[in-house]
Specification:
The longest helix has 22 residues, at 86-107. The chain has a two-stranded antiparallel sheet. The protein has one domain. It is built from 8 helices and 2 strands, in the order ααααααββαα. Helix 5 runs antiparallel to helix 6 (86-107). It is an all-alpha fold.
Length: 193
């Protein structure tokens, strides 16, 4: 799935489990950082722009380095050192990393009918426990879009209802501006109807 969808799903999970702001942000990153193994796409693009022979770092390393149980433990473990409640954040971080994997197994197929993205759960050390689902949704398919829209709606609901949003992961000031803007628009909408 899209990194934006992973971000929103991880934040929503951390919010539903009532983590404090900093721990919620850290648990959210635990659900996003597995996609750091896809940064090879930047090298591939740079190589194409520079006229170098084709590289395929993205295809070679994405889902092969940080999409397994070891990353699902290592990332939350590293980030838990910055948490207010380390054990709770670690547990939720492991959960959001696994939610990332589940979302990828369910909805990360490329455009072709046979373009599945398998998930090597023991990566990068072994390919023995590779998970793949033959019903995997296309990355740009309607189920992924609907899921993302529902997550966006939840984020707006939380901004109106609770006074904070996923924008808080990037900073409290930005979150205050976003929440106030959403609340003002919501009040204007309610007065108009």
């Amino acid at each position: 799935m899209s990194p934006i969808t992973h971000f929103l799903a991880s934040w929503s999970t951390a919010d539903a489990l009532r983590l404090r702001a900093r721990d919620r942000a850290l648990a959210t990153w635990c659900g996003v950082l597995p996609d750091a193994d896809g940064l090879g796409v930047l090298l591939d693009g740079a190589n194409r722009l520079l006229g170098r022979t084709g590289s395929w770092y993205y295809g070679e390393f994405h889902h092969a380095v940080l999409h397994g149980v070891f990353a699902a433990v290592a990332i939350p473990l590293a980030l838990s050192f910055f948490a207010a409640n380390r054990l709770r954040m670690f547990a939720v971080g492991v959960l959001t990393a696994h939610l990332h994997f589940l979302c990828d197994v369910v909805g990360s197929r490329w455009t072709g009918a046979d373009d599945f993205w398998p998930l090597p759960y023991l990566a990068p050390f072994s390919q023995r426990l590779t998970i793949q689902w033959s019903g995997q949704w296309p990355l740009d398919g309607w189920p992924n879009m609907l899921f993302t829209l529902l997550l966006i709606a939840f984020a707006f609901f939380r901004a109106i209802d609770a006074g904070y949003s996923p924008v808080g992961v990037f900073g409290a000031g930005a979150d205050r501006v976003f929440v106030e803007t959403v609340r003002n628009r919501w009040r204007m909408f309610r007065r108009a109807i």
